[in-house]
Each structure stands twice: as C-alpha cells, then as structure tokens.
Amino acid sequence: MHDFKYKNNHLYCESVKIESIVKKIGTPCYVYSHNTLVDHFTKIKKAFKDIDPLVCFAMKSNDNLAVLRTLVKQGAGFDIVSVGELKKVLIAGADPQKIVFASVGKTEDEITYAMKKGILLFNVESLPELDEINRIAKKRKRKVKVALRINPDVEAPTYSQVVTGTLKNKFGIDLKTAQKIMNMTKKYTHIVFSGLHVHIGSQITEGEPFVKAIRRVIEFQKKLAKDGIELEYLDIGGGLGIIYKDEKPQTAKDFAKNVLPLLKKTGLKIIMEPGRFISGNAGIFVTKVLYVKDNGVKKFLIVDGGMNDLMRPTLYGSYHEIVPLKKRTGRKVKMDVVGPICESGDYFAKDRMLPSLKKDDLLALMSAGAYCSVMSSNYNMRGHVPIAFVKGNKFELSRKRQTFEELLDGERIPKFLK
Ligand code: LLP
User: Out of 17, 71, 134, 347, which could bridge 76 as a Cys pair, Cβ 3.0 to 4.6 Å?
Assistant: First the structure.
C-alpha cells in the first residue's frame, strides 16, 4: 500500500500533484509521503499488538529529518549504525531509551558518545568489541546494557550483498563464541548482559528464514536461562521484503502469525528493526527526460537523475518501477533508462517497456523511500537532490538542493601547490 496514485491521469502523492512539486523544486528530486510511513509503521504495531514490541526504525534506510520526526511522533524507536545517525535522530526528538546501536565497527568515540546519551542497548558484534565497551564503560565508571548479536548461520534468500546471517558474513557472533562469552560474564564488570539480537539480511520475502533464525536464538536463550542467566530483550532485527515488481512478500500479519507464538513463549520484551518495510514504498524519485537517443541497436531514454542519486539498480540489479507523472496510453517500446554519469553502469532500467516519451517528460521511480537518497553520492560533482515531504494536501521542502559552493566546502588547494 502506498499513497502515490493517479488522479485524472496525473500522479499524486496523497493530495498533492507531483508536477506542482516539481514546478517549485525542480528535478531530480525525492518526494516522501507522511501517510504511507505512518500506515506501514501502524501495520507492524497492530500485527504485533499482543506483545507490544518496541519498533526501532532502521534509519539507515531513510534518515531524512521529516521521516524521523514522523516516526518519533508515532512512538518509534530507532536502530542506528553510527554516531552521525545518533546525533541526527536525537535532533528529530528521539528518546535515547528507544535506541539500539548495531555496527561491526563501533569506534571508541562512538561508544563513548552513545554511552553518554544513555541509549537502550549496544548490539555487540564481536568479542573484541565487547572487551572495548567494557573497558570504556569502566573508564567512565558506568554500566552499559548490551545484547549479543547472534550470527545464527541461516542463509536468507535475497541478493548476496545484503545477506548478513551466515558465518561467511562479518556480522554478529557465532553461537560457540556467544556461549564462551556467557560463561565468563563475571569478567565483564561494567556490562549488563540484557539481551540477544539477530538480523539475517534485507528484502527477505519469505517467512521461513526468520522463523529458523529466531528459533536458533531462542534455543540459545533457553540454554542460558537454564544456567541461571536471565535476559530482558530479544531484538529480532529487520529485513521484511516489500513489493518492487511482482514479489509476494509476507505481510506484517503473516510475519506475526509465524513468529508470535515463538516470541510470546520467551517472556522477553521484543524489539524489531524494520527499515524498508516502513520507508520503502513511502518515497519516489522524480527525474526529467533530457534526450531520447536511438543508435540503431538500442533506444536510450537519457534522464537528469543518475546512479549517484539512486544507485540500487546498478549496485544490486534492483528493479524500480518507472512511470510517467502524466499517464500515457499507447504502444510501449523497449528502452534503457540511463543517467548522465560517465559509466555504463549508470542506468535505472534495462530493456524496459515504456510508453513513448519525449524531452522534458517527467518520470517517477517508484519504491524509492529506502536505501535510495541515503546512498547517494556527489560523484561527477553532482549535488544532493532536494526532498519534498507531503502530508495530506501540504508539502514542504525537507532538504534543499546542495549548491556548488556547499559541494566545495572544506576542500582546499594545499599551500605548497599555490
Ligand atoms: N537491522 C540491522 C542490524 C540492519 O543492518 C538492517 C539493514 C536493518 C535492521 C533493516 O533492514 P530492512 O528492514 O531495511 O531490510 N542497501 C541495501 C539494504 C542494506 C540493509 C542494511 N541493513 C538495499 O538497498 O537493498
């Protein structure tokens, strides 16, 4: 479900005609829908209402301040991966006691900062990281709550770059090491072992891998309980897949049906970390046709957006539906939709059937709310594009277009070259 629909042949975001946004802020740009975000957040909350989980939005999927603020207002917590994310989400008004911090490479500065801010949990990804957190906590005379991120060695069927739950991946702690750690908890004088965490990957459309991974972690938790180690939290991560093309992902309800019985039995407070499920279909990317080129072999639609603005197609071969803002009927033709960047990898679609289009036509890349704007770069000296945030019949610029001066900010020619 999302709030991007045609009305009288023009694409709208909620009650705002997207062409009217483009008139004000130009292209390329992102447009986000408030109601879609709230709708997806509520879907998860409702499906799991029996256990009232803490839903920590994975802000790596979309860290726009308007998005974060919307979710803060819904009572969301946040899953963070860096001190930059922590600072940003605190500005959006997040409660530190609803923040969990996973990352395989937390630095001393990051650990110290998060500790000072009093976040809920450090999701610890290795034995040396645990040693480091203990050392820093001791130095600061604090006790910190951690959850061990378990690597359950469960392979999720998704693209290889986002599989995280097998022992070939850098994430989490294998069960043997986790057991070793839990046998020597006394050594960690400044750590409170509060929970277990698991996250096996992203864009997973099936239910079975989640069940398998959660079962493994719960078995471990039961073993710990037998040894007299009581925990408080079980964080089941994110990873729920969404519809980009013709996927049939499990719904929030299906997911709940599959895992609720397991989770309830643990008696633990459940944390979830959905990112894409909440933000994925809440955003689109809007781009304008610059040229239509036909080289006799292929037809290219050259648009003003590039892989630096939205890199999922070239990075993962991901599919994003492409639709014109003004609905077109008539015969469709096969074409590649490409950007202006100096690489053949700079494409949004290959051999896509699209209606006949011409210069200045506007297009939307759908399902661009997760891992799109956040992964953009300044490659080819291109500034970050603006973001419009829509709620009902209102919209505001939530991020302005980055200027040339801002792009250059902080960069200098060394004195010895002057
Ligand atoms: N929790 C942890 C510890 C994570 O690493 C992630 C995502 C999530 C939760 C949220 O996963 P989600 O619910 O969004 O699937 N750039 C890739 C996706 C990378 C996912 C990184 N970790 C893409 O565009 O497909």
Answer: 71
Cα(148) to centroid(ligand 1), Å = 18
pTM, two decimals, is 0.97
Q: Structural domain boundaries of the chain?
A: 4-31+280-408, 63-274
Q: Which residue has the tokens 């975001």?
A: 13
Domain range 63-274, CATH architecture: Alpha-Beta Barrel (3.20)
Q: Ligand 1, residues 43, 60, 160: which to mutate, most atoms within 8 A of Cβ?
A: 60
How many residues in the chain? 418
Question: What's the CA gap between 32 and 50, in Å, rounded?
Answer: 30
Tokens 């965490």: give the residue: 197
pLDDT digits (tens, 9 = 90+) for 163-219: 888 988 899 999 999 999 999 999 999 999 999 999 999 999 999 999 999 999 999
pLDDT of residue 104 exceeding 90, the answer is yes
Question: Cα of 2 to ligand 1 centre, how many Å?
Answer: 20
- Measure the CA–CA gap between 275 and 239, rounded to whole angstroms: 7
What's domain 4-31+280-408's architecture? Beta Barrel (2.40)
